[in-house]
From TrEMBL:
The keyword Hydrolase applies. The keyword Metal-binding applies. InterPro entries: HD_domain, YfbR/HDDC2. The lineage of its organism: Bacteria, Bacillati, Bacillota, Clostridia, Eubacteriales. Keywords: Hydrolase, Metal-binding. This is HD domain-containing protein.
Length: 219
């Protein structure tokens, strides 16, 4: 029987209990079909399952286990940093600093080797360069689109989100999967037509539709 390193075990258990707090970080996106806002832990779990199921649509081969772990830990820093809404430009100005400080503290709870491994995965996801990170970020972008579409676009309407804002964010989806990006475009078309998503800023300013779906008279 392997002798247990008590210090190492307690560091691991401290981290495990600390990340339980992720369940208390609520996002702007609501659960499918309506209801309450989802929390970060639910979002991360959903992303990981999506990655396993949708891996065949990735544009590049990737390590599924590595990508799923990346999904599961990518928002842990929000325990300290809080959730930054995708379309809150003011909050995004301080996001990197807040999340870096959080990463120092939270991953620092682990034994050095494990802390370094998870911190590297967190930074890899953030950089979005590797095949795993590109597809993980595609999942991060696609998941709230699916939820928003399922609940009648309520979150998009509540925040007055425009087509161009969503499409700018979905560039990251295209880097991981053109097929899933095309799915997102179809969902955007549908929700612009239904009035759940405002037309692009340029189209709204000119009083014209944006040419990618009937904007249902929204100016």
């Amino acid at each position: 029987m392997q002798e247990i390193d008590q210090k190492r075990l307690h560091q691991q258990l401290d981290f495990i209990l600390e990340i339980d707090k992720e369940k208390n970080v609520f996002r702007q996106t609501h659960l499918s079909g309506g209801g309450r806002a989802e929390n970060d832990a639910e979002h991360a779990w959903h992303m990981a399952v999506m990655m396993a199921l949708l891996a065949e649509y990735a544009d590049d081969d990737f390590d599924l286990a590595r990508g799923m772990l990346m999904c599961l830990i990518h928002d842990i820093v929000e325990i300290d940093a809080g959730d930054t809404y995708a379309y809150d430009e003011k909050a995004k100005q301080t996001q990197n600093d807040r999340e870096e400080r959080a990463a120092d503290r939270i991953f620092g709870l682990l034994p050095e080797d494990q802390g370094a491994k998870l911190r590297a995965l967190f930074e890899e996801f953030d950089a979005g360069v590797t095949p795993e990170a590109r597809f993980a970020r595609a999942m991060d972008n696609l998941q709230p689109v699916l939820l928003n579409n399922s609940n009648g676009g309520g979150d998009w309407r509540r925040h007055h989100v425009r087509r161009d804002q969503i499409e700018k964010r979905q560039i990251g989806t295209k880097r991981g999967s053109v097929s899933l990006y095309n799915l997102v475009e179809a969902i955007i078309d549908k929700n612009v037509a239904e009035g759940n998503i405002a037309p692009a800023a340029e189209a709204a300013a000119s009083g014209q539709h944006d040419g990618k779906g009937d904007a249902d008279g929204i100016a």
